[in-house]
């Protein structure tokens, strides 16, 4: 009789599915960088769905828990705590260096492996902690910009830097400055702006143009880049505007109107890539989200690939760090992926120009 | 291999009752639950459907009212282009929109009002190019008010819902408000706590989620219900979302391009259903416990009459007749008791009948035995009579045989005696002649002739007398042997010669020759009389039967040793032989092929009996029609002492 009752209970409570592996996505889903957040979230969702459709990680499905860091360091830290409470084995995100800075103490305290697809501040480089990064650092990126534009004959640069993501923007500017100055005969002026303040964008635009620079450098997100560009173009139609790679999302095109024609920047992926794998990814992404993937999507998908590869070895979070570092070279969407001993990786760089409302690779 | 375990009736009744209760509960409970769950699911589905439809309608109504407001704003702007637009817009925006701006026909922003109230910002927005702004281009393409879904504001950078209303002048009004406004609209009519819904825009992004869980952060376009909702395909009624089952229904708003998905926890996740389930389980458990308590009482009621029956059956088996036949409350058991009683009675009756039958059978057997004894006695008497008759017949045959021998002897003696008498007559005649001539001169020649004749006559007479004397002695010897069985040692050849002599007269009257070819070295210590009679009988038998219709025949007697202790005597003829039928019956008493011709049918029978009983040997017969017959005697050199009785006296019919 007892066994009957137990059997009945077992039937009632039937839940034979293997326990899912919880993975957190902490990105900005509101705020000015929500475009990057959405792009990252979508790519990870796509990667997780692909894994789940092919039987999960050693039979266990991936369950994603998306949390909004609102583009703010404090919100990001709170999101890490919540993700930890939910029992995630790892976190993918965040996108911004500022939110990464906010999260870093928490992820190291809670020992939650976190793979940021895009954060690139030099602050995170060569540190043995729980943060892994897919992107190159500001040093490499800024150096690429410096060399490129120095070669093009640009000598005087006026830079606008986002006060809300100083971890990135200041790091970026510093690296650019040192690389650019090293090339000789240059001046770099900069202006810190805060989109959340009452100051607006027009004053920033005016300040940037004051020094009559050869090029204006915008180290800002896509929304701010679009807005500042709109304000600059109201005052000046000629000056070359260069944006840091942060702004290089599709959202820039939607918000910039005709003002952003001719603006130049680096994208960390080859948007013209014709490999079957990337084209499949691109069409699946579009099919699913009715949008095209951006650089954050490509980097986030690669981050998910790395994480899942390591989890396949062992889904125990305790061994995850060792397994991530120990991963062999993985084929990413467009490039080989490999973490160094500090959990840092490399990205490629492609210069693009906005022409007729589209990014055109140089 | 499983052995059926013996259970006590009471145990098995208890088990039976309890398992009946459990099975009934399981079946009825399952059926009930299935019914309830089905009903519940249907109700939930109805509820979810109604809710999603209501929600769609309410949000449509809400957004339509906003659209009308915006159209009115646009109308007002168009009709009063010179008025203080900024103040007007601020008034229009307040408390409803986070931003409102008017875009010229060249997609350049003309004037804006922001909830931040930042005048500088509002001012610098003038001249911003919105030609790539998807909301605006969508509205221009559709030429009607268009909702954005979840989107990032180009102006504020916030995630909002936007509405673009193209005006007849080619200008457009754009308003934006936070997502939570939609949630608030929905919350107004959330009737039950378990109902939640999503408002999903055309890209699968969650515009609103009443549950407050973080699903609004996900893109839900991959959910089956979402896909079905958008495509109009048949919707699944159940959905698994993050490990939980929901009853779902989606309503698509053509007007907004949005999907409204109502969801109610399904199965055990639903608190109402859980309550029902716990009630049913508690009822089932209570019933089971109560049943378990009652089962032994019932079992006792059932097992008591069975115990009585068992006791009664045991008594009957032991041969007793139970006195008490207690009846109970169960009809079948009472019937069984009645039947047992009837059975017991029937057994008693049958026992009496069997005893009577047994006794009758004994007397019948006795009667029959007596009858059989009487018949047996009659048979014995008859047998004795037959034996006597046979003895008489044998005696007659012996007498007849003796007669035939005497006739033979007479004939045999007649010749020498006749010869002797003739010689004596001749002598007497010669003597008479001589006496007459005594006075006559005696001629020497006559005297010599007379003497010669006398001498010859005397010699003839003497020879014949000697021969007659020999004959008589021989007969005497044979007859003496035959009348009294005397055992002695005899040379077989001599015995056969004597027998041949006595048969001479018979042989002379027949065309048959008898040849005896027996070595003089063979002897037997036996009964020569009986042996002689056997040979005589066999020869006579051959003469009478073997050569019928033939002009000549030959009988041969040969003898030899088969071993040191046995002698065989073969008597063969080249006569007609016998048919197998005759061979088979040849030694039977009173069987003869010459009935009415003087055959008694006892000759060969006597041979057979004599050889076996007196001589202690065997006689066999081989014959074939046309090939002659061979009798072979095999007798011991030393005849047995026992059974040395005169022929015929101990003969029995066998």
Automatic annotation (TrEMBL), chain B:
Q: Which SUPFAM superfamilies match?
A: ATPase domain of HSP90 chaperone/DNA topoisomerase II/histidine kinase, Homodimeric domain of signal transducing histidine kinase
Looking at the record's lineage, which domain of life comes first? Answer: Bacteria
Q: Name one Pfam family in it.
A: HATPase_c
Keywords assigned by UniProt? Kinase, Membrane, Phosphoprotein, Transferase, Transmembrane, Transmembrane helix
What reaction(s) does this enzyme catalyze? ATP + protein L-histidine = ADP + protein N-phospho-L-histidine
Molecular function terms, GO-annotated: phosphorelay sensor kinase activity
Q: Which residues cross the membrane?
A: 12-37, 276-299
For the protein in the UniProt heading, the enzyme class is: transferase
EC annotation from Swiss-Prot or TrEMBL: 2.7.13.3
Give the protein's recorded name: histidine kinase
Q: What is the lineage of its organism?
A: Bacteria, Pseudomonadati, Pseudomonadota, Alphaproteobacteria, Rhodospirillales
């Amino acid at each position: 009789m007892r066994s009957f009752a137990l059997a009945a209970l077992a039937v009632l409570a039937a839940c034979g599915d293997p326990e899912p592996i919880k993975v957190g996505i902490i990105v900005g889903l509101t705020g000015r960088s929500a475009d990057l957040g959405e792009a990252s979230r979508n790519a990870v969702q796509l990667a997780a769905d692909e894994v789940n459709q092919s039987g999960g990680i050693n039979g266990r499905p991936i369950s994603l828990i998306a949390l909004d860091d609102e583009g703010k360091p404090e919100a990001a830290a709170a999101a890490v705590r919540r993700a930890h409470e939910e029992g995630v084995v790892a976190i993918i995100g965040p996108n911004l260096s500022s939110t990464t800075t906010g999260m870093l103490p928490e992820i190291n305290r809670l020992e939650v492996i976190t793979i940021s697809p895009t954060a690139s501040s030099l602050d995170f480089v060569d540190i043995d902690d729980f943060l892994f990064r897919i992107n190159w650092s500001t040093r490499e990126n800024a150096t690429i910009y410096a060399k490129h534009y120095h070669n093009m004959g640009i000598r005087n640069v006026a830079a606008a830097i986002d006060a809300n993501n100083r971890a990135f923007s200041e790091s970026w500017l510093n690296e650019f400055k040192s690389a650019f100055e090293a090339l000789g005969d240059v001046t770099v002026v900069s202006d810190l702006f805060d989109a959340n303040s009452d100051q607006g964008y027009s004053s920033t635009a005016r300040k940037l143009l004051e020094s009559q620079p050869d090029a204006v450098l915008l180290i800002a997100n896509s929304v701010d880049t679009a807005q500042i560009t709109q304000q600059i173009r109201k005052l000046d139609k000629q000056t070359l505007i260069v944006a840091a790679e942060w702004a290089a999302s599709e959202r820039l095109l939607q918000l910039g109107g005709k003002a952003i024609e001719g603006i130049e920047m680096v994208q960390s992926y080859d948007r013209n890539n014709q490999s079957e794998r990337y084209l499949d990814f691109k069409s699946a992404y579009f099919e699913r989200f009715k949008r095209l993937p951006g650089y954050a999507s490509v980097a986030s998908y690669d981050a998910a690939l790395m994480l899942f590869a390591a989890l396949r070895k062992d889904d125990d979070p305790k061994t995850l760090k060792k397994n991530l570092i120990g991963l062999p070279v993985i084929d990413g969407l467009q490039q080989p992926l490999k973490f160094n001993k500090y959990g840092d990786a490399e990205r490629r760089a492609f210069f693009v120009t906005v022409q007729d409302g589209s990014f055109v690779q140089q | 291999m499983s052995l059926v375990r013996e259970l006590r009736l009471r145990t098995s009744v208890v088990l039976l009752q309890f398992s009946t209760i459990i099975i009934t509960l399981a079946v009825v409970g399952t059926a009930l639950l299935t019914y309830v769950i089905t009903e519940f699911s249907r109700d939930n589905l109805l509820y979810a459907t109604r809710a999603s439809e209501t929600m769609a309608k309410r949000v449509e109504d809400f957004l339509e009212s906003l659209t009308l407001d915006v159209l009115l704003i646009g109308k007002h702007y168009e009709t009063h282009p010179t008025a203080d637009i900024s103040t007007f817009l601020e008034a229009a925006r307040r408390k409803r929109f986070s931003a409102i701006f008017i875009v010229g026909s060249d997609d350049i922003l003309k004037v804006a009002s922001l909830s931040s109230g930042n005048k500088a910002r509002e001012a610098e927005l003038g001249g911003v190019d919105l030609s790539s702004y998807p909301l605006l281009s969508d509205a221009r393409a559709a030429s009607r008010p268009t909702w954005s879904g979840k989107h990032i504001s180009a102006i504020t950078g916030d995630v909002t819902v936007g509405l673009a209303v193209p005006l007849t002048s080619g200008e457009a009004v754009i308003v934006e408000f936070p997502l939570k406004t939609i949630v608030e609209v929905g919350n107004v009519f959330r009737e039950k706590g378990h109902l939640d819904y999503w408002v999903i825009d055309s890209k699968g992004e969650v515009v609103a989620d009443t549950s407050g869980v973080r699903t609004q952060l996900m893109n839900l376009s991959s959910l089956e219900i979402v896909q079905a909702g958008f495509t109009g395909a048949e919707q699944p009624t159940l959905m698994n979302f993050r490990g939980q089952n929901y009853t779902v229904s989606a309503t698509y708003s053509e007007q907004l391009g949005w999907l409204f998905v109502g969801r109610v926890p399904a199965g055990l996740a639903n608190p109402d259903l859980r309550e029902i389930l716990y009630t049913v389980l508690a009822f089932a458990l209570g019933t089971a416990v109560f049943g378990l308590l009652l089962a032994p009482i019932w079992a006792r009621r059932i097992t008591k009459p069975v115990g009585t029956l068992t006791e009664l059956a045991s008594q009957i088996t032991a041969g007793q007749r139970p006195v008490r036949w207690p009846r109970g409350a169960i009809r079948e058991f009472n019937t069984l008791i009645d039947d047992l009683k009837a059975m017991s009675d029937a057994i008693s009756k049958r026992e009496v009948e069997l005893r009577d039958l047994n006794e009758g059978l004994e007397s019948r057997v006795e009667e029959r035995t007596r009858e059989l004894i009487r018949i047996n006695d009659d048979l014995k008497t008859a047998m004795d009579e037959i034996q006597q008759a046979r003895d008489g017949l044998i005696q007659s045959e012996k007498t007849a045989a003796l007669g035939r021998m005497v006739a033979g002897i007479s004939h045999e003696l007649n010749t020498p005696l006749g010869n002797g008498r003739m010689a004596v007559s001749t002598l007497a005649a010669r003597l008479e002649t001589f006496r007459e001539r005594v006075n006559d001169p005696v001629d020497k020649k006559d005297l010599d002739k007379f003497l010669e004749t006398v001498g010859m006559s005397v010699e003839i007479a003497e020879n014949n007398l000697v021969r007659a004397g020999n004959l008589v002695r021989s007969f005497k010897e044979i007859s003496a042997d035959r009348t009294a069985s005397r055992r002695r040692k005899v040379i077989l050849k001599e015995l056969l010669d004597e027998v041949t002599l006595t048969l001479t007269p018979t042989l002379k009257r027949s065309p048959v020759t008898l040849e005896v070819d027996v070595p003089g070295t063979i002897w037997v210590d036996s009964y020569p009389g009986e042996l002689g009679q056997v040979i005589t009988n066999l020869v006579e038998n051959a003469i009478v039967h073997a050569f019928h219709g033939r002009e000549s025949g030959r009988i041969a007697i040969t003898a030899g040793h088969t071993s040191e202790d046995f002698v065989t005597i073969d008597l063969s003829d080249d006569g007609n032989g016998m048919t197998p039928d005759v061979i088979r019956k040849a030694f039977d008493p009173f069987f003869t092929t010459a009935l009415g011709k003087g055959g008694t049918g006892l000759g060969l029978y006597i041979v057979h009996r004599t050889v076996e009983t007196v001589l202690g040997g065997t006689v066999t017969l081989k014959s074939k029609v046309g090939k002659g017959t061979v009798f072979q005697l095999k007798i011991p050199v030393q005849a047995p002492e026992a059974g040395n009785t005169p022929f015929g006296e101990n003969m029995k019919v066998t």
